[in-house]
């Protein structure tokens, strides 16, 4: 049940972080290890939520393919892309969950996710969201891959177009070009986000040339900056805009596209935006973890001016419907996907392994809609 009164889960201030560090490119085990280290570092500096950029596990496909691609290069690149993809759930996701639990921090991390069904090999551009207890609360698959991305990823569905309730507030997420999908953003706004995680493969300019995507060096050309500031204002929420940073040293020398990828714009550029649409942390380049303290009064003050999902939405005149498995529904909370839910027997076994009270675990899972 979504609380209608508590902002930031009743807290006055929440510290958030963006892990703007290089992915260990297409190397799944090493990349998961680095993610766990960064999660620990963010928590040690007081962050209660840390966000990673788009498909940080285990790298964005910065290369170009076509019918004229050299076959050996294309084949090797595709095999590495597939073999580094994450299965949900798996030992990889468990390791990240354990890092979140040990550090006591909420984690949003992007990944190339390969379909867990044995008959499917489709890969999705996915964001995974973990609670501070290590639970994999939810997942969002990018609804519409952009431009050349359609060669790499399948299309997500609206079943995970949702906002997750946590002890620090309501958290939602969209990926890169989804921010030009006005109705997708509206569906999350309608669920009352306190935090919105927006992820990108880097801060790119589309109009400078000579390449289509060039590095935005001064924070004025990246269209993502415009969209995330607009979303913060429209939603009356904080936005963590996580932009990718890719170090060439983290790409193996024998990777077939080494030196042939457009990683020049993957130099960061992340920012953290206040509910008024003004940056708490301006677009920042370079490898680092960015931090910001988010105050509840900022949300309360802005929403007293424009109650975006209240009277200001004029529901008597305008309504948004989202198509899910059971048909068209008003935008609202969704149940987690079936593969993220567990049975009471599985919960009790896990509780016994970790020597915790199974009744408390079961009550928490039921509250979050995680029981089958």
Brief account:
This protein is α/β, with parallel strands linked by helices and about 375 residues long. The chain is about 25% helix and about 25% strand.
Layout of secondary structure:
Elements: E1 13-20, H1 28-44, E2 49-51, H2 71-83, H3 91-103, E3 106-114, E4 123-130, E5 136-141, E6 164-166, E7 169-175, H4 182-189, E8 195-200, E9 204-205, E10 214-215, H5 223-235, E11 238-243, E12 268-273, E13 279-285, E14 288-295, H6 296-305, E15 321-324, E16 327-330, H7 344-353, H8 358-367
Parallel strand pairs: 1-2, 2-3, 7-8, 8-11
Antiparallel strand pairs: 1-14, 3-4, 4-5, 6-7, 9-10, 11-12, 12-13, 15-16
Helix pairs in contact: 1-3, 7-8
List keywords for this structure.
372 residues; alpha/beta; Nitrilase/N-carbamoyl-D-aminoacid amidohydrolase; 2 domains; six-stranded mixed beta sheet; 8 helices; 16 strands; 24% strand
Commentary on this structure:
The protein is of the alpha/beta class. The protein folds into 2 domains: 10-330, Carbon-nitrogen hydrolase (Nitrilase/N-carbamoyl-D-aminoacid amidohydrolase), CATH 3.60.110.10; 341-372, no CATH class. The protein is 25% helix and 24% strand. The protein has helices at residues 28-44, 71-83, 91-103, 182-189, 223-235, 296-305, 344-353, 358-367; strands at residues 13-20, 49-51, 106-114, 123-130, 136-141, 164-166, 169-175, 195-200, 204-205, 214-215, 238-243, 268-273, 279-285, 288-295, 321-324, 327-330. Helix 1 runs parallel beside helix 3 and helix 7 (344-353) crosses helix 8.
